[in-house]
Each structure stands twice: as C-alpha cells, then as structure tokens.
Amino acid sequence: MAKPLYRLQRFLRRAQLFLLFLGVAYIMAGSVLLLQRASLVVTQRGATSPPLPSLPSIPSPPRAVELGMPPVRVGGYGGRSSRIMARGQGYQPGSLLDNRTGARWLMSRNLEIRHLRRRWFHSLMTEKDMSQVERSTPRRNVPHKGSYIGCFLDNSKERALRGSVFTDFRKMTSTMCQDTCSASGYQFAGLEYGSECYCGNHITSLRVRDKECNLDCKGEKGSLCGGVGRLSVFTVEDMLPGQRRYRNVRYRGCFREPENSSSTSLVHVLQLNLTSQSCIEACMNKEFPLAMLRSPDCFCGYATPDFTLHEPAEEEHCSQSNTTEASLPSTLQHFYQVYQTPVQDSRCTEKNFLPEKSSSLVALSSFPGAGNTWVRHLIELATGYYTGSYYFDGTLYNRGFKGEKDYWKSGRTICVKTHESGRREIEMYDSVILLIRSPYRSLMAEFNRKCAGHLGYASDQHWKTKEWPEFVSSYASWWASHVLDWLRFGQRVLVVHFEELQTALVPRLRSIASFLNTTVTEDRLLCAESNQDGHFKRSGARQPTFDPFTPDMRGLIDGLIRAVDQALRDSNHTGLPLEYLPR
After folding, report:
1. Could you please report the per-residue DSSP string of 272-318?
2. In this predicted model, what pLDDT tens digit does every residue of 473-498 receive, in sequence order?
C-alpha cells in the first residue's frame, strides 16, 4: 500500500512542476507577442525615408498592397480613380450608378476609402509632435522693457482691455502676450485664467489686490497670469512714435466718403504735419481698426453697412485729393486712403456656447486641407457661437477653439467639423455645410500639415520623396469620393467653395448664417471680414521651388475634377469654379 502512495506522490510533484513550467511559458509567449505588436506599430507609424532634422516623421499613406488592391504605379494612376473619372460624367441620383454594383466606387464602405480615413485620423499630429515642430521654429529673443502694473477686475461684459484677444491653453507666457500686443500696436498687455491674453491702449476697470491674480501661466510655471475674472496687466516695450514697427498694416484702397458720414461714426483726429504713418498710429492709440487719410485730415473708425469698403474708387482720386485739395472741385475732395491697422475689430470677439441645446445637428464637412479650420473661425466670428468637432485636436483647442473639447453630439455648438463621408456617418447629421476647395490646393495644404503642422510648410526635400506621389495617388480619389458621398446621402446640403469665400466673404457668410438659422448683424459680418485671418493662417505664400505635380498626377486630378463638377450640376448645385476646371 505504501508503494502506490509513494508513486502517486512523485507523480503529483512532477505535475506541479509541469504546470508551473506551462504557466511560465505562457507568460513569456504573451510577452513576446506584445513586443512584436509594439514594434509593428512603431514600424508602421515611422517614415519610410530618413527623418529630416527637427521635423516629425511623415505618416505613410495607405499603399495599394495593404488594401488588397493591385499595386498603383507612380507613372500611371488608375484603378478606382479611373472608374470615378469614367463614371462621373453620368452620375445622377437614382441612375444606374446609384445601385450597389454600379456605384461601388462611390460608396464610402469601400475598403480603400474607409481604411484611408482611418489612417488619416491616426496620423494626426500629436501634441508632442507639434511641440517638436514649434520648438524647431526660431523665435525672436527680444528683451521686454515693459513692467507689471497691477491686478484689475475683468469680465466678459466689461473688459478691462478692449483691444485684441489671443488664447493659448498650453503655452501662454507673459512674454508671448507682450510680444503679441506690441506687434499689434497696443500699449498694455493683460493675462487672465493663465491662458488668455488681452491687449489695449486704455485700462477701463478698477484695480484690486495683487494677490487676487493667483494663477500661473500655462507655459511658464511661477509666472502669474491673472486669475478668475482678474487681469494681470503689463506695459509693453515703450518706443517713440515713428520708431514702432507693426505687422499686418494693410492698405485697403481708395474709397469715396459715404453720403451719410454721421452713420459711419468716424472719429476726426487733428494732427500737424500729417503723414500716413502718424494717422495710423493715432488710430491705433484710439483702438480703431481703420485709419482714413484725406489731407490734411485723419479719420478713424470701423467698416459699417454705409462704408463697407467693397467698392474701391480709382486710385488717382485719392492721389489728387491728398495733394492740392484746395484747388480741386468738391467732387474730388471726398475720397479716403484707407489703411487696415493691426488693431483687432472687437465687435465680434465675444463667443459662447449655444444658450439652449440644439435639436438639429449640422456638419461642417470637408476634405482635409480644404480650409475647415478657417471657416470655423469665420463662423464663430459671424455668429458668436463656438463650433464643435467630431475629433479632438489639442492644438486647435489650445489656440482658442473651445468647442473642440465639447462632445460633438452635445448640441451646444452651432456646427460640427468632420472629414468623414461614410453613409452611416453622414446620416447622423440633419444637414451639412459642404466645403470644397481645389484638389491641387487641398492636397498641398494637407501635405504641409502632415510634414510641418498647422502653420508650417513642407520643405523641397519632402516634396521630392516618394511619400508625395503615394500621397497623391491615395488621397486624390478621397477628395472626389468625399464630395460625391455627401451629395448622395446628405439630407440638406449647402455647398460652399473655399475660393468664393476668399473673394466674396460677406455674402457667403450671410448665406451660411441663414442656413444655420442664425440672425447676424451686418456690423458683425463686416467685423468677421476685418478679422478673417485669425491665428491659423500660414504666413506668406511659400510654395515649392518646382511644380510638385507631374503630368500623370494632373491627368488623374483633372479627371476627378470633371466628375465632381458633373455630379454637382446633376444634383442642382452650382458647378465647380472655373479655375478648378482643366483648360
């Protein structure tokens, strides 16, 4: 009896060791798999070409092999894009192209487009990537002579400083705020909530105890940036008149004096030895966005419904009236030379969430690179309400798009940004503002963003890599598919062309506000036009030193343009602007 028990005991001991060995092997195998997956993700996210110094790697666009499609040759763009071009001419709602077999190229459930959108979303630059790009940009190291004045009361209805407003929820510092206000021609810079910068030439509120300004700057720990309803105010660098150098001073043109001058509320400034520079500085000191010169008089004011600055006169009228006005007929003595000063028009800077939850969900949909952020900025200025987003872009939130962090279905924003175009995603919205931009400009803008962020530019070296032709071959068909899908599945569609917004901003903004069922004043529309650039416009018009589009690329894109133009006309919309269409 003892011998069988001994054998059983030995077997159980061996079984314990065996089970322990299996457990350890299982854990090790799981660890190896996790490491392999992590390395695969890093490999997929890395650039295929050696990274350029100080720039994040470019996310590789989806390749045809990954999508289960025949490889796309750089020299011959075919496949799905050619099917769009061949069938775009005959696209009609309810036609043969509307069925599942004939319109497979159109449906966003197509594996290629769905995968492409997914890859695009995951390729958005992270906050870490953006900070790397911004750190690589050389910044002016100018010592400030400004000094701290004190802590002042501030609220949304009675601002202590009523000039321009600048927000950065991540990197705000007192130096950044003073720099911004100085370049815009203001004498005072104020910081609030640790992230908001206000500029002005006059402090209009009461001073309080300094300890009430107790919040650190978001980008500079230990440096005070106001408090809740409290503004830390600094003077900016003091320079003698005539020595200041401002950004964004722009000559608007020669304009006839309005018939009812009192309705324009122009402020007359008397000056000896009047020059355009002294007139501009006088209007900046009075916090006006417009300086109007008619020798020997200087006027300051705003654009108004009676003085819109939409109908310029011949320049010779102003040159004559500003030289020998005493001997001129009275008809030639009423023309102004108008300058846009760096002062921000403050009539449309206050923004809020909708006071009541909206029952209608409106999309602001576009292909990436079509100017969605710029149009959101314009809508917020014109309506006074924040816009939301289907995604979350920390960079946009940090720069003042507060609706970016709000849940996109909350109903608190006036419209919601999206780049999606699947049928299921489209049918979640009650209506859509469909923003379209030339595919040539859209593709370049999106490639710039991928290489260098929202405000940067791709270098010539980027354009010469194989990433660019692969990007065009993948993304060009998405540009066409995006428009066609929204035309097909959208319930209520307002088509807006980016280029028309640039040339006729106020009428197009008025139609957008009407579509959003929002009442806006003419003054607010003109204010939006005055502040249209915002903080998310790439400086200058930097382009590659060579044409990045090859003949094969142009053949592909031109065919897609024709297909989209025909689809718009067949859907009772205005076709694409003539500048899109190939000659």
Report:
1. SS--HHHHHHHHHHTT-SEEEEETTEEEEE--BTTB-S-S---HHHH
2. 889 999 999 999 999 999 999 999 99
